[in-house]
Amino acid sequence: MTFEMFLVIFIILLMLVGLFFEIARPDLLVFFALFLFIMLGVVSTEEALVGFSNEGVFTIALLFIIASVFERSGLVERFITYFLRKAKSNRGALSRLLVPISVLSAFLNNTPIVATLTPIVRKWASDHDVSPSKFLIPISYASILGGTITLMGTSTNLVIHGLLLDNGLAGFSFFELAIVGLPITCLGLLYLVLAGPKVLPDHRSLIEKVNENTKDYLSELVVQSDFPYIGKTIEEASLRNLKGLYLIEIFREGDLISPVTPETVIHDGDRLIFTGMISTIAELQNRKGLMLDTGTDLSLEKLKNKRNSVQEVVISYQSNLIGKTIKESRFRDRYDAGVLAVHRNDERVEGKIGDIRPKAGDILLLVTGEKFNRTPHEHRDFYVATPIERENVYKNEREGWISLGLLTLMIGLVTFQVLSIFQGMVIAVGIMLIMRMMTPTEAKQSVQFQVLLLIASALGIGNVIILTGTAEWLASRLVDGLAPFGLLAVIIAVYFMTNALTELITNNAAAVIMLPIGLEVAARSDMNPMGIALLIAVAASASFLSPIGYQTNLIVYGPGGYRFKDYVKVGFPLTLIVMATTVSIVYFWVL
């Protein structure tokens, strides 16, 4: 091992530790690692930035745009709602959910599908007096499985496809991954439907937990006639920056004022609703003219009116809220919503609300105003997980059907190799813009640039691994060490390493790090490189053991009230099923 190889492995290990402990956003950590390689002279700038010109990255950007049209159309919601209406049992509902979700995920980005369906599933579960935790992990797993069927099913497939093209290989055809994707999807869905109801936990939602213990979250102080700041603003009364407390609403003569701004004027008889560290309310109660009302029946329903609602949102990996306190991000002004509570790993985050720094996967309970936008594609900072209370209005249904037709035509042309997938998506997006199914501004807003930065930076790191000889060195150690155990042992090791990485960090980063090593393993073992690429694509997507390995697992983590061990309990058998099936097919039929 050369010093250069040692340096590459050391920096990558530091990056993996940072990703695991969520020191910063994943895209920033991976880009910083790439920046270090450039600054230390390990590779040239051109060699490090090769990912920013990769075809797979641009294809993913176009996929975001196409998926956003479907997301706005409401077709996915209508489709799933139709299937759920006919369900007569929990197991029947599960099967009616998982099959269409896996089919949709084969052709659309699974992240918006799961984000869109989470509130619908929770509403159905609430109406049928069933815990949503019986359904949310399965819809995430079904979307992951479905994404392994086609080239466009997940960004991981497209990233590996782009890397194969860069390495002078043919890349995947549109349905080439289905040789593994279809069997693991069928077996995986069978496991989830048959065993899911028995092994899935029965957890309550955050809203239900808060409703049962409202006094732990809310306190009500009544403004008396002798309060010296009647007629003054909230800021003048020093009720804005309190120790551990957060003023979220004011009840005034039957009306509800929310969110409360610094300029809101205090009236005699106002009832001030506080959240945060309720144990510190005594300090505020000692102020002249403020009386704690212990007899009031506070509930979340009381915080709602025609203008306000109570919402649960899940912080995404790409959120700009990560790394900032709620106060620093100006959450209330930015989203027209007050934060009632923050939960992490199924436990409440203690302390003053404004001082809490959200992390990916945190679930925030909000009291929202009229301007709060519930549409997930408008906010990349979080996903709305609250059950919908009325039927969606499908304003863009026509555009949805047209885009579905365009997508079907594009798939046909790509399948018969008339066009490459990149060319097909360029044409589809161009037609959508010409037909005014979306504006250029809407197209730009639908692209998740932080995801693209993560992928492009990871591709650069993959190039570093190749150019420095690190991939060749690691592959030689792997092949030589397992040679006595045969080719099957090598294949299992590559799968296991990829799958372990994707559980610890992110699926795209795991794929990019492992593909150069896998291709070197294939060369040294005289294997078909496409077989190893297929193996790594499935292993990188098959994240079932933790909420952090895959975005869809993160989306359902908080709304389902899950604990880390729930993913292990449900996901471990599924992981074994997928691994055994994938390794067997690749070993006996592909290699």
Automatic annotation (TrEMBL):
Where is the protein found, in the record's own terms? Membrane
Gene Ontology MF annotations: monoatomic cation transmembrane transporter activity
One GO cellular-component annotation of the UniProt record comes to: plasma membrane
**InterPro entries linked:** Cit_transptr-like_dom (IPR004680), DASS-Related_Transporters (IPR051679), Na/sul_symport_CS (IPR031312), RCK_C (IPR006037), RCK_C_sf (IPR036721)
- What keywords sit in the KW lines? Membrane, Repeat, Transmembrane, Transmembrane helix, Transport
Gene3D superfamilies from the xrefs? Regulator of K+ conductance, C-terminal domain (3.30.70.1450)
Q: What is its main location?
A: membrane
Where does the record place the RCK C-terminal domain? 205-290, 298-382
Instruction: Tell me which Pfam families the record gives.
Output: CitMHS, TrkA_C
Q: Where are the transmembrane segments?
A: 6-21, 28-45, 57-76, 97-121, 172-194, 404-435, 447-466, 478-498, 504-523, 530-550, 570-590
The protein's topology relative to the membrane is:
Multi-pass membrane protein
The answer, when asked if Repeat is one of the entry's keywords, is yes
Please name the GO terms of the biological process aspect recorded for this protein, alphabetically: potassium ion transport
**Annotated PANTHER family:** BASIC AMINO ACID ANTIPORTER YFCC-RELATED (PTHR43652:SF2)
**Name by which UniProt lists this protein:** SLC13 family permease
Recorded source organism is Halobacillus salinus
